[in-house]
Amino acid sequence: MRIITSAICFSCFYFTCGFSQVKYEKEYRIKENKVPENIKSYLSEISFKNKIKWYKDEALSKYTYEAKTFHDNLNFSIEFDSLGIIEDVEFKIEWKNIPELIKKNIEFYLDSIYQKKKIIKVQIQYTGKPESLINILKDLNQNQRLTRKYEIVLKGKENKKYQMMEFLFSDEGKFEHKATIMIKNTDNLEY
Hints:
Layout: H1 2-19, E1 20-24, E2 26-30, H2 37-43, E3 53-58, E4 63-71, E5 74-80, E6 86-93, H3 100-111, E7 116-127, H4 130-138, E8 147-158, E9 161-169, E10 175-182
Parallel strand pairs: 1-10
Antiparallel strand pairs: 2-3, 3-4, 4-5, 5-6, 6-7, 7-8, 8-9, 9-10
């Protein structure tokens, strides 16, 4: 009986953690000379009208570099792993610009969880081969070989408690991933 109880408890814990993770991330601005050359070479073939702002994101087990810029009337974010391999390209959009059917699928899922919610940020995320990701920066219509997803950051009320959450949905609006965003509280001084 103990083995069955232990197995059930482990399964509940395992599946709960698998679907909802905590996202510890520290993002800070860095100077261009701190960015590895192989990362800068990815973007050298694209002529951005605006300056690129460089960031380093540190998580518990890894770090990434991020290039942010305004390009073709969109706020772009290009993320690279610690070895300099491009991971994804994201750009911000308005909630109202998500296609209606996809938006309804996302809303249906979120409404099943939250009594109240406020959407903070919506991004389209493209992943795929590095050369295809670079091509989308040149022309947004070059997305045939890429995987498109929707990243939603929101503040939601669940069980009488507000939390910042990040969700990832497929191109059809199906739930894929959820993470609780842990905000580092640096504004409070302790005496």
